[in-house]
Amino acid sequence: MQEKRTRRQVVLTTLVLLAACRGAGQGPTTVNVELGEYSIKVDRDRVPAGRVRFVAKNVGQMEHELVVVRTDLPAHQLPYNEAEQVAEEETAGQLLGEIEPEDLPPGKSAEMSLELTRGHYVLLCNIPTHYKLGMYLDFNVD
Ligand SMILES: [Cu+2]
Fold first, then answer.
1. How far apart are the CA of 44 and the centre of ligand 1, in A?
2. What CATH number is given to the structural domain containing 40?
3. What's the whole-model pTM score?
4. How confident is the model over 44-102, as pLDDT tens digits?
5. 60 within a domain of the structure (yes/no)
6. Whole domain around residue 69: which residue ranges?
7. Nearest to 69 by CA among 15, 114, 34
8. Ligand 1 mean position, distance from CA 106 (Å)
């Protein structure tokens, strides 16, 4: 009887410790992003809710940017402003962040961290014409 209780205590203590360790080690989820002509590539397009660190590298020959929008619309169906040749980020949903510097020169990297809740997001480069040329990507947070 007593042994049973002790064993249960050990199990409980272990569970508490495991939970504590997991909590302590819970840093941001890193997503590596490659920007190029004319695509956006990521090493993961699905992450758990929480802090997400986007590390973007411009692997192309011209300037690009990285914008994160929360929207229910599929990445290829954001409202488009024909006159300015850009996707309308604010109309599509909620603009969450933009990497700094806004226009990332070729060969350069930059990062940003965002607190993301469960839902669908779109990553895009909204330098005129780039969205239409294919610089968008669906991204999900569970
Ligand atoms: Cu671009």
1. 20
2. 2.60.40.420
3. 0.81
4. 999 999 999 999 999 999 999 999 999 999 999 999 999 999 999 888 888 888 888 78
5. yes
6. 28-141
7. 114
8. 11
